[in-house]
Design brief:
By secondary structure, the protein is mainly beta. It has helices at residues 9-35, 39-45, 123-126, 224-230, 241-253, 382-385, and strands at residues 56-61, 65-68, 73-76, 88-90, 96-101, 105-109, 114-117, 129-142, 152-155, 160-172, 180-192, 199-202, 206-209, 220-221, 261-268, 274-281, 287-294, 301-308, 316-325, 336-341, 344-349, 359-364, 375-381, 390-402. It is elongated.
Length: 434
């Protein structure tokens, strides 16, 4: 029989002292690691919870470099690498770099430029992309779903630009005054100068430049040269395969014409115009179509095509749809609708006068001879856009109205009133194929 004796109080004290010593040593080590390192090294120790996707280096040309925090030197860039907090990327005369945050934004650092991803100062900054343009030019395109958020900031030595659902460009000069320039093709950018009260909002087709004294200039319309400098940013707007599949699924929920549409997309004159189409589900669960356009350069035209099957023009009385403006967005004076059969235009119409409220428009087809409808296009052009060379319209309930059976003719002593349609087809000499 073995009897265990209770441990002495001396052994308890020794154990407690050992644990306390270990904790003090660990605390001292953490303090040293956190507060005795450089800012770059601190970022590796202090961990902020962040919901942001990583900033990936997806493509580059030439020989750009990235600054290594570990080696304290510039190193060649690697595709598929990440730009972490505190990293810097620079390009030479022959190089540029594309950076992407999945489903949120793509930015392009142009030649002879240098960019830094700023270290977060607190948790709020950890949930915001903070990009500092030391010199040069950066182009960017963010997702429209970020219109009401400010999770991307692009700063220069002179300004801070808060980006919201935007196609934009920022330039930072290396001159003594650190002149900075911000241009917007789509969306809105809030630009703050060195003085916090110095702030302007730059919207569609506008730009602002810092003055010699550092103040911000009033936003003004971009020039053709400035548009040319920015237009490349449109190339950064890309939809993933999943997003395209979602668009096709939403289009099928739009009903009407889209029951007969097997393909749809946009077209534009290369390098001088751009267009987007987005199917959106509204708060009441209805799917509507939004078409955006930019026909700033003279002679440009853009639009949307819809490939149709199982539809013959002789079976229908009219093409009908509801149309409205999009609040806060420009809209055209007019655009062109073409109903086509194997590349030939059967009917063409020019809708005009778009209102804030939904309005129904009806376009008569009135064909006795059979011809399969293979495509419908909506065309926006510089010549028809008016002052708003950049804008959008929203469409709903696009459908063909079937012909009604005609009742037997009966003699009448009353002459019927002839009411012309609200929108008539264009003259035959204007029915050209785009």
């Amino acid at each position: 029989m073995r009897i265990e004796k209770p441990a002495s109080s001396t052994s308890h004290k020794s154990t407690f002292a050992l644990i306390l010593a270990v904790l003090l040593a660990a605390g001292f080590f953490w303090f040293y690691q956190t507060f005795q390192r450089s800012p770059s090294e601190k970022a590796a120790v202090i961990h902020f919870e962040s919901a942001l996707p990583p900033l990936e280096i997806v493509n580059f040309t030439g020989t750009p470099e990235i600054y290594s925090k570990i080696d304290k030197s510039w190193m060649p860039l690697q595709r598929g690498g990440l730009m972490a907090w505190g990293d810097r990327i620079r390009t030479g005369a022959d190089s540029e770099v594309d950076l992407r945050a999945a489903d949120q934004m793509v930015i392009r650092l142009k030649a002879n430029s240098e960019l830094e991803r700023k270290l977060p100062a607190d948790q709020a900054d950890a949930n915001r992309y903070q990009i500092h343009l030391i010199r040069g030019l950066v182009l960017g395109a963010t997702e429209k779903k970020a219109e009401t958020e400010k999770w991307l900031q692009v700063s220069t030595p002179a300004i801070v630009a808060s980006i919201r659902g935007t196609v934009f460009a920022v330039r930072a000069e290396e001159d003594e005054g650190h002149v900075s320039w911000v241009g917007v093709l789509r969306g809105a950018v809030e630009v703050t100068g060195q003085a916090q009260q110095d702030q302007v909002t730059v919207k569609d087709m506008q730009q602002t430049t810092t003055q010699i004294d550092g103040t911000l200039g009033k936003p003004i319309r971009v020039s053709r040269e400035e548009w040319d400098d920015m237009k490349e940013a449109y190339e950064l707007i890309q939809k993933s395969a999943a997003q395209e599949a979602e668009q096709m699924d939403l289009s099928m929920q739009a009903g009407g014409l889209f029951a007969n549409v097997f393909d749809h997309g946009t077209f534009f004159t290369p390098k001088v115009g751009y267009a987007w189409r987005n199917f959106v589900k509204t708060e009441d669960g209805k799917v509507v179509l939004e078409i955006e356009y930019d026909v700033f350069p003279r002679g440009s035209y853009v639009g949307m095509y819809m490939k149709v099957r199982d539809a013959d023009i002789a079976d229908f009385e009219a093409l009908q749809m509801r149309v409205r403006r999009i609040p806060g967005t420009g809209y055209p004076d007019a655009f062109r609708i073409e109903v086509k059969s194997k590349g030939q235009t059967l009917r063409a119409f020019t809708p005009k006068i778009f209102k804030k409220e939904w309005q129904t428009m009806q376009f008569p087809l009135r064909a006795d001879k059979k011809a399969p409808i293979s495509e419908i296009t909506f065309v926006f052009s510089h010549d028809q856009s008016g002052e708003n060379t950049r804008g959008a319209l929203r469409f709903a309930d696009i459908e063909f109205l079937p012909k009604k059976a005609e009742p037997p003719s009966q003699p009448s002593s009353v002459t019927p009133e002839i009411v012309p349609p609200a929108v008539m087809p264009l003259p035959s000499d204007e029915k050209t194929t785009v």
